[in-house]
Fold this sequence. Notes:
The protein has 187 residues and is an alpha+beta fold.
Amino acid sequence: MDLTEQINQLEADLVELGSLLEKAERKRVQELLQQEQKKVEKELAVKRQQKEKQDKREADPTAASKAAYTVKITNYAWDQSDKFVKIYLTMKDLHKIPPENVEVSFTERSFSVLVKDLDGKNHQMAMHNIKPNVEANADPSDGLMTMLKKIYSDGDDEMKRTINKAWSESQEKKVRGGGGGEDMMDF
Length: 187
């Protein structure tokens, strides 16, 4: 459903909520309808703003790229299993931009993410040589260690604190006899 259709649906919802509110007799029901009406009004305002931005971009598609500059994404997290690695990016107001402003590309050993025109900036993250060719007898944790070291060296202060905290907790568990496996890494 495109933005125009979403806006039309929200406007129809507001009209129906208004007529239900007029018919409602009980105070609690009226309050619930008013709350829902406010939610729909906010959502409608966001959609209208998105539509306005989309119309401006369509009128001058080069304007967004001229105004924006690119910053590096350094705050992220990941999760991995034997077969998959998940990268988590948390960005304020990401839900307010259209999906076509987010570009993701993958290769066998790299990925990149580009978020266009978020708060007047482009945000980019790229990881290369993620998983080097693994020999049959190689330790699978070596690839993880390499990736952790790269993330630590490229990360901001908050990322370094997070990794250091995880490493310290792992060392404490080992000292207390709680396992923890091999050393996480030596920074």
